[in-house]
Design a protein that fits this description.
Layout lengths: L1 E4 L15 E4 L8 H21 L3 H18 L6
Antiparallel strand pairs: 1-2
Helix pairs in contact: 1-2
């Protein structure tokens, strides 16, 4: 998913973070948000393992947080 400023693609700057952005809707319109969240949970888990094995502990932490959020959004509430 790519995010664009409501007025079209613009470089992301500190000032742009305060403005509304709209997600670009692409891909399969039949794909459910729960399915996407489940996929994101799987990928962030794998990337977290890679980051931790490489000593990138803060990045691994953020990926773990993304995994937990994605699992919650997917309907899988186990936080293991």
């Amino acid at each position: 998913m790519t995010f664009h400023h409501a007025e079209g693609p613009q470089p992301m700057t500190i000032e742009a973070f305060g403005q509304e952005i709209e997600p670009e809707r692409t891909g399969d319109p039949e794909m459910r948000p729960e399915d996407v969240a489940s996929y994101v949970a799987q990928m962030s888990e794998e990337m977290g393992r890679l980051a931790r094995a490489s000593g990138l502990d803060l990045l691994a932490y953020f990926l773990d947080m993304a995994r937990l959020e994605a699992r919650a959004r997917s309907g899988r509430f186990d936080v293991s």
